[in-house]
Amino acid sequence: MNKPVAASLIAITLLGGGCATSETTPAEPTLETVSVATAVTTAKIVSPSQNLEVALTTDSGTLAWEAKWRGETIVQPSALGLVFKTGRDFNRDLVIASTAQSNKDEVWEQPWGERQFVRDHHNEILVDLAFTDGSPAFSIRLRVFDDGLGFRYEVPDTGPRQITDELTEFRVDEKAQSWWIPAAGWNRYEELYETTPLSEVHRAHTPITLELPDSGPFLSIHEAALVDYAGMWLNQGRPGALEADLAPWSDGTKVKVDGAFVTPWRTVQVSDTAAGLANSDLILNLNEPNALGDVSWAKPSKYIGIWWCMHIQECTWGSGEKHGATTSRTRDYIDFAAKHGFDGVLVEGWNYGWDGDWFSNGEIFSFTQAYEDFDLEGLAAYAAEQDVYLIGHHETSGAITNYEEQMEDAYALYERLGIPAIKTGYVADGGEISRRDDDGKTYKEWHDGQYAVNHHLRALKLAAKYKIAINAHEPIKDTGLRRTYPNAFSREGARGQEYNAWGVPPNDPAHTTILPFTRMLSGPMDFTPGIFDLSFGKPVMEDPRVQTTLAKQLALYVLLHSPIQMAADLPRNYEARPDAFEFIKQVPVDWSESIMLDGYPGDFAVMARKDRNSQAWFLGAVTDEEARTIQVDLSFLDSFAYEAQIYRDGEGADWRTNPYPLEIDFQSVGKESTLTLELAAGGGVAIAFIPPE
């Protein structure tokens, strides 16, 4: 519910001195001329706990912001503003004309997710800005939570315009430790994370995670509700000054607007610990509520697929004697899924377009026509008989126009065949998304530019019409839109398991200890865990290979959330290790609660989650290349005597030389218990806490 904010929450310094407060409800930007005589220079707001304070200032007519945590500055005075190709820029001669404030404290329910009920508790101020000549400019809406802040620009209708620069800054101590991946490169988001002082960051993707000096708080800078705008990179200018750098159109324009518009929220999550960042719901809370209505058809699921055999070169996407997507092989996968309780079977390479250099085949892919050795209709019917369904695959090779011309026919076909989910793909180098205009000319755009942002939303809306969920690979980054469009199930947007099959280098043991505190702060990831043959039949120490122990592969099912979770290995490798496979079969994909218990990026992470459909809890703990002993307090459990089924690294386990030893222990535990977990180098522990029947 909305409540008036106590007068102490906002202090406004008048141009002529003194203090005033406002308790009106938030207002939209006004086009009426304002009186500069009543303008103010500073507006401050604090979080409900009063630990976080944010101020907006217009000293000397320049708009800036800053933030303090427990009284200490965490974001130094940082610029704000927008620059346009034509018309008046929003970067000088500004004053605060008026403010309006409110707060909210409510709980809302997710249809699926990492937790069922989410609390949205924040204080808000809407700051209307004017130029010093008295004409209206724009507004800043600022929300402050106990775990961070978000602000956005709200601009009234001034007709069609082009944004050439966004001046938003995040000025942070340059000595902060940072975990980041480079932006504006050929490999989109699929990079190993850098761990460096902030001063060594150049152009970075968000989320970027920082630890301030002297064991200061952790920060994560990102954005929420990215709609009809360009994705934000961060470019370091002066040391410590991270500047918004919007992914451009092919003509150099950053964003094209027509009429009134709002930008995405610029966000900073704050916590005294790294684990606290992973427990934040701020990104979701800054998105709009569900716009699709009843989404009971969007069901979380576990799946297997004809996928890994291509990556390890046992079969091919293209047709021929090694074709992976055959009717016979797919029937075998359907049988395996039905036998072991999986919901779906993904099939890649079933449709025309994969032959030859498929990376360059974007304009010839068909999304409805199958190869002759793949009976799409018959297999969909066979799967339904087994209470399993096919998961569709649409690789576009970045040719978005070709895909959009076929999307409706493809989605309608899938609805008729009972295919409820699609994995989309946009494999193309960064800046090589193909946009074919009405004049027939092809232009090249960024994966995170405004054109691609809008395409992904069009796909979600159209898929919802046909009751289809989307799992996007090579996507635009997650910014919490799954709250508004709950058929946005999952996405890639980071270096996933496939790099362990052919990457140079493969993902190192620290990679999955960094993801929960960086990429996963934005939302679910289809990492595709569960590889059991860790070196694909080669000698264990020969790269490329999976640089984990077997137990760590199990732990990733708890650590890395996705509502559509894959058992990525070949069926024969699961049949060879039924002991380990049992955990994959029982671990849920939909949760009523999730708690990051402990961790530090690049070292280790410990996550506990509660099944949404039972009283069972699950825990996943992973470490980097070092062996580690972790104490875990089980006070998160409910008041039952649980059987802890512990899948842990066996004697002598080591990711380098001996990754396979696995031991399974059974213990009786309760919420008063403490477990000592011994993680091998590159290892992990997966635990199912089963309550009494």
Tell me what the structure shows:
With 693 residues, the chain is of the alpha+beta class. It has three domains: 284 residues, Beta-galactosidase, Chain A, domain 5 (Distorted Sandwich), CATH 2.70.98.10; 202 residues, TIM Barrel (Alpha-Beta Barrel); 164 residues, Aldolase class I (TIM Barrel, Alpha-Beta Barrel). Helices cover 15% and strands 35% of the residues. The protein has twelve helices and 41 strands. Strands 1, 9, 10, 11, 12, 15, 16, 18, 19, 23 and 24 form an eleven-stranded antiparallel beta sheet that branches. A seven-stranded parallel beta sheet has the order 32-31-28-27-26-25-33. A hairpin with a 6-residue loop joins strand 5 and strand 6. The protein is globular, with a radius of gyration of 26 Å. The relative contact order is 0.09. The N terminus is likely disordered.
